[in-house]
């Protein structure tokens, strides 16, 4: 919120609001938010800790604000990156030009456990592999963002982005009269339009879309149901679908109905017991046959995980140069691959300074933050790296930006990241904002909800605010503020 010269212009109104709001009033609003989220059933699941795994995701009342100019620069970089990732996927399952050119080691791709040979020689409808991407970025300077990781398989969290906005509009309608905030409520509509845009050519004019979920025991089940409801499509499980003559059908009370597009929230391994894990009870037998026959579209495409593998991540800037003939607009975090002898030697020598991650890890598990770890923990990870070097990467700890956050002791700075969501069909769409995740523990850099993190509403201003000292226009409510719940649902 503050720069060396004082309050940042984007936060001027928020700073005045906080100065005029008592801690008791903020505490009351926080309890109101908890009741609201509990009533709506906005939960996430944490496994392996005993007791009831369903928890409310912590929600912070103070929004994270991004200026319009800053957002526009970030959005251009996100679009560029996702275009390159899709071209990479089309290439490695096709001609493999980037491998033949020696820009990425062949074994790193073809020997990777998330590479799917079944996708070789097949181009999905519209040539799109990752229809829904979540690119995790951190702000490291006034106008500088770094990409932490790419999520090209089944990125989650967009329901929290939408519900956080809804909660803020209910709790603090007065704040929306002093800010022009870009709306996020069109995301479900734009997601549905994106999915329909990649339907196979053999489909009818209005393709039938379903959302395929593993079921109620999945950690993101709330989001699956939420998005299906918002889009007005069926949320189905594997047992609700079957394949006949290489066509996918949904079981209904009025008989089988053909399905044209499946927004799948099931990992590759469990998607089709004929093609992947034979013991899977979550998927649909024959689904990959129907997919390769061109009778159904899958979003995201099986095999898209090779584009967001942490061992592939260091090469994404090279993908941008190779496929687009452009310089990357967004920087990577410097990354050491422990499978390389020189990188491994550096990591082992400086492990107390680095962040070490599992190559195939997620959710903040299997990670070491060297500066905040004990000697014993560093020694444990040293042994792990020596035993299985290919399973680990390491990165320097970044000076992540902080934002004001309401904690038990009052308002304090806490580290954040941002996950914008990028939709790719016949065009690329980016909802202004995304999911801001906040590390609620003092000094923590881990923002994952499973590791004690929370979320914030992310405000992208429709206009850059005036410089410090200039008058702030009071030109009425933002479109986001006047958008009702029924309008957001498309009723």
From TrEMBL:
- Pfam families, per this entry? CP_ATPgrasp_2
- Identify the residues that the record assigns to the Circularly permuted ATP-grasp type domain, covering every copy: 63-439
Region feature (Disordered): 447-491
Could you tell me the superkingdom of the organism this chain comes from?
A: Bacteria
Family matches, as Gene3D superfamilies:
3.30.1490.270, 3.40.50.11290
Listed Polar residues bias regions: 480-491
Name used for this protein in its record: Circularly permuted type 2 ATP-grasp protein
């Amino acid at each position: 919120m503050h720069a060396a010269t004082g309050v940042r212009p984007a936060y001027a109104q928020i700073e005045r609001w906080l100065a005029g709001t008592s801690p008791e009033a903020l505490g009351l609003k926080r309890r109101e938010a908890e009741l609201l989220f509990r009533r709506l059933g906005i939960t996430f699941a944490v496994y392996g800790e005993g007791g009831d795994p369903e928890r409310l995701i912590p929600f912070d009342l103070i929004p994270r604000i991004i200026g319009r100019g800053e957002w526009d620069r970030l959005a251009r970089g996100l679009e560029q990156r996702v275009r390159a990732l899709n071209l990479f996927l089309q290439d490695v399952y096709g001609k493999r030009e980037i491998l033949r050119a020696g820009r990425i080691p062949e074994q790193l791709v073809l020997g990777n456990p998330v590479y799917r040979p079944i996708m070789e020689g097949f181009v999905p409808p519209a040539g799109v592999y990752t229809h829904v991407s979540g690119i995790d970025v951190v702000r490291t300077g006034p106008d500088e963002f770094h990409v932490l990781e790419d999520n090209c398989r089944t990125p989650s969290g967009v329901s929290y982005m939408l519900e956080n906005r809804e909660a803020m509009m209910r709790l603090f309608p007065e704040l929306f009269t002093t800010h022009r905030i870009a709306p996020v409520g069109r995301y479900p509509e734009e997601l549905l339009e994106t999915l329909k845009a990649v339907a196979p050519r053999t489909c009818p004019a209005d393709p039938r879309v379903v959302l395929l979920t593993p079921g109620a025991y999945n950690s993101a089940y709330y989001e699956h149901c939420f998005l299906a409801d918002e889009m007005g499509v069926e949320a189905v499980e594997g047992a609700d679908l079957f394949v006949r003559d290489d066509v996918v059908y949904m079981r209904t009370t009025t008989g089988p109905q053909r399905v044209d597009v499946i927004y799948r929230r099931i990992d590759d391994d469990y998607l089709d017991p004929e093609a992947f894990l034979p013991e899977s009870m979550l998927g649909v037998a024959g689904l990959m046959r129907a997919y390769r026959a061109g009778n159904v579209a899958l979003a995201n495409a099986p095999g898209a995980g090779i584009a967001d593998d942490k061992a592939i991540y260091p090469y994404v800037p090279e993908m941008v140069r190779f496929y687009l003939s452009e310089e990357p607009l967004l920087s990577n975090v410097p990354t050491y691959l422990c499978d390389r002898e020189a990188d491994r030697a550096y990591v082992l020598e400086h492990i107390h300074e680095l962040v070490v991650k599992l190559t195939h890890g997620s959710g903040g598990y299997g990670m070491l933050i060297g500066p905040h770890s004990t000697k014993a923990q560093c020694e444990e990870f040293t042994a792990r790296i020596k035993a299985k070097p290919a399973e680990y990467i390491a990165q320097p700890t970044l000076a992540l930006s902080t934002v004001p956050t309401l904690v038990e002791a009052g308002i304090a700075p806490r580290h954040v990241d941002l996950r914008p969501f990028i939709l790719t069909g016949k065009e690329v769409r980016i909802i202004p904002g995304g999911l801001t995740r906040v590390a609620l523990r003092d000094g923590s850099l881990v923002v994952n909800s499973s590791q004690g993190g929370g979320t914030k509403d992310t405000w992208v201003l429709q206009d850059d605010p005036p410089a410090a000292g200039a008058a702030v226009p009071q030109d009425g409510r933002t479109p986001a503020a006047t958008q009702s719940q029924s309008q957001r649902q498309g009723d």
